[in-house]
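Async update (no meeting this week)

Hi team, since we skipped the sync, here's where things stand on the single-chain job. The sequence we agreed to prioritize is pasted below, unchanged from the tracker. I ran it this morning and attached the output directly underneath so nobody has to dig for it. Comments welcome in thread, and please keep replies under the output.
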Amino acid sequence: MKKTLIAFGAALACLGAAHAQSNVQLTGLVDMYVGSMKMAGSERKSVVDSGGMSTSWWGVQGTEDLGGGLKAGFMLGAFFQGDDGSKGRFPGDTYFARDANVSLSGGFGQLLLGRTSAPNFLPSVFANPFGDSFEVSPLILHENVSFYNGGVNYSTTPSDTGWSNQIRYTTPDIGGLTINVAYQFGEVATANSKKNVGVNATYRTGGLMLTGFYERAQVNNPGAGLLADGTKQNWMLGSSYDFGVVKLYGTYGQSKTKDNDNYEGKTASLGLDIPVSKAGTIKAAVAHTKMDTGAWDGKHTTTTVGYDHNLSKRTDVYGVVMNDRFTGLKSGTSLAVGIRHRF
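Output:
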């Protein structure tokens, strides 16, 4: 009996140790705003909407310590519209459009399989003061939000901010430098060579941040088996420097599409953060894109000024004013006030 109790206690101890080596976390963000929105060439719309400064999402992530410095991990992340409870960033978006992957990591870096961010995403977020806002960040709007004029899409990112069916390798931190190499399979039997490839890099030291990416895309996202009309390429270089009293941002990039449109775009952006208290920051940014299709050329300029105030480590409130101009269209001005909570 005594031996049985000892064995049972040892089993419980082992179970507890194994459990301590694994963790699963519920995480996410809810961002809601009230706004009067008008982009260039559009009609004004008053809204209570989701995702003013960050797209609302929820997810589950976890890791398991496999021993010897090796860890297994997973991430499942879904976007949603907080104003009406609908799923995704837009109608028809896949459920786990943010993340759906499994990974192994260790001293060699990380190897990931599944859906995760495309090479363009993090460098663009790091290099502008409005982060990942698809509503008010000039750089993100120019790169990722479809702007059609004469049937041509003038957004510069070739294939979404996330790639499905992806193999991604991430290097360990090498003196402040991290590199991601990504390959997305097209998964179309009749076009087996179609794929997306890309790379990004970020370097940080002191107040300096340098980043950049390159992508060559032949596959659309987020679904599988969606081939692009042609081959699209884009690249961007970006940087920021924190002087304490002000943080400055800058980017320059180019995008080319080889299909019926033969679109070329060149985008430059500037931005700044000015802390005005321990909790509040004034933000300003401008992005300018010059477009050429051979038959038509034009310019797109977006300027945003805002204020972001932290109520706590997880909750902030913000207000922004944005002006949008596009060649041949009437300009638009938007105003938004919102709250963002992380959990």
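Quick observations from my side:
Residues 240 and 249 are 4 Å apart (CA to CA).
The chain is about 10% helix and 55% strand.
Reply here if anything looks off.
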